[in-house]
Structures are given as structure tokens and as C-alpha cells.
């Protein structure tokens, strides 16, 4: 009798364990299924990534073709080429991993790959705002009147563009390398005490750098971005004011000379750069708002993370088409040497 009871208990325990395992396996299978909303987000990420890569590589090929055929690029095209490279870095480091993650392949990146992806993304983001600021300020100087305070810089500015771009690359790569190295040092030093702040990026789990050292993050990342944003805003306002004054003088000349209005190449180039800078400021402001919102939550919802990623990808996706929309920017004056 006791033997029969013990065998019954073993059978019941085995049945309960089997039912629990089957229920757990069923729940895992249901959780792994892609929801229609996430599938739609994944398709948007995929289209944004593919079209963004195609647009940026097409424009980069255009610039490289002109360079290898012994053509001399305009200064604005030279800056635009580096903006395109920054866009490609952003799309490859942000768009591709987010597309894979949204299609339900999570945490596919190793620890080293995770740090490398985040580093490339930060360098691309820093170069994007740096080159946009440089392009806006340069065009503001070049279209300023001869009696303005910028008249002495109009001749000198083109000579310093190559140095400014190189300095921007070195600064972005150096600053964004120091910050994760410092975070790695602090995380290993305090590993046994208070290093529990991590953030799930979807494709990997990374240390929440903003929570490790807010002052260093502000000094190295936030302050330069705010400074560049203020310069872009000032340059955009200056370009609008200059274009307004130029259009008024042009209207007065048309009334006197009775000729048809025809915008100059300089005006078309300025309008294109102004559109590019305004688009950047809109998406950059939205991206900052969403990033601040994400920083307030330790485990934010998936739609908030995906929306923030989509917005951060908008400018790298749109900017090459904005540059190609104006012949004054894409086409270059070629001088055979």
C-alpha cells in the first residue's frame, strides 16, 4: 500500500512538472511571436534603413566620382560629403540593429560588439551636428554683405574648412572614446557595490552611461550639442534675414529694370542649406525630447524606444535627398588640373 502511494505521488509530481514545462514552453512561443504593431515598426525601420543607405551612398559616390575625375568640389559639397559619411555611420549603427531587434532577434550582439555599435553611433551623431553647424555658419559668412563684420572672414573661411572638418572628426572620435573608457573603469572599480544601472537597447544590454557620471556626460556630450544647436539656430536666423534683404533689393531692381525675377545660384544654395539646417533642428529637438523621456524610465516601453529610434533616424534618411533636390548643392564646378 505504501509502495502504491509513493508511486502515485511520483506520477502526480511528474505530471505536474510536465504540465508546468508545457505551459512555460507555450508561453515562450507566444511571447516570441511578432505582434502586428512591432512588425509594422520593423518594416518602417527596414525601409528607412535601405532607402537611407541607398540615398547616402548614391550622393557619396557622386562626390567621390567628381574627386577622382580631377574635379574640384565646392566647399559646401566638401562639408556635405562628411555629413553623408556621418549619416552612413548612424544608419549602419542604429538602423540595422534596430531593424534586426524589431524583427524579434534580441541581444544578438556580444559585449564588445555592443560597445562598438554604441561608439560608432555616438561618433556619427556628433559628426552630424558638427558638420551641419559648420555648413550653416560657413554659408552665413559667405552670403553676408561686404559691409558686415564678417567681411574679413569671407576670404579666409574657405581655407580653414578642411582643418575644421579634420578637427571635428578627431574631437568626436576622441571624446566619444574617452567617455565609454571612463565608464568601463568606473564599472569595474565599483562592480561589487552600486553598478546595477543598465539599459536594454534591444540588441544588447549596455551600462547606463548617463547614470554613471552626469557631470562628465554633460561636459563631453550635452554641452557641445547645445552649443552647436545654438550656432545652427543663429546661422539659420542670419540666413533668413540676409535672404529677406536680398529679395527686397531684387524686387526693387525688377521694378526699375522691368526684368523677370531669377534667383541666383547663391540664393538657391542658401535656401537648400537653410532647409537642411531647419530639418536637422526639428528632428534633433524631437530626438532630445524622447531621449530625455527615456532617461527618466529604467525600463521604458518598447513603443517609446522604437519611436525614439525612428526619430533619430529621420535626418540621416532625409538629408541626402534634401542635398540632391537642389542642383546648386549636388552639382559642382569642375576645374581640370
UniProtKB/TrEMBL annotation:
Cellular component GO terms held in the UniProt record: plasma membrane
Taxonomic superkingdom: Eukaryota
Keywords, comma-separated and alphabetical: Cell membrane, G-protein coupled receptor, Glycoprotein, Membrane, Pheromone response, Receptor, Transducer, Transmembrane, Transmembrane helix
Segments traversing the membrane: 39-66, 78-96, 127-148, 160-185, 216-244, 273-297, 303-323
GO biological process per UniProt: response to pheromone; sensory perception of chemical stimulus
Topology relative to the membrane: Multi-pass membrane protein
Record's subcellular location: Cell membrane
All copies of domain G-protein coupled receptors family 1 profile, residue ranges: 55-323
Molecular function via GO: pheromone receptor activity
Function: Putative pheromone receptor.
UniProt record similarity statement: Belongs to the G-protein coupled receptor 1 family.
Protein name in the entry: Vomeronasal type-1 receptor
Lineage start: Eukaryota, Metazoa, Chordata, Craniata, Vertebrata
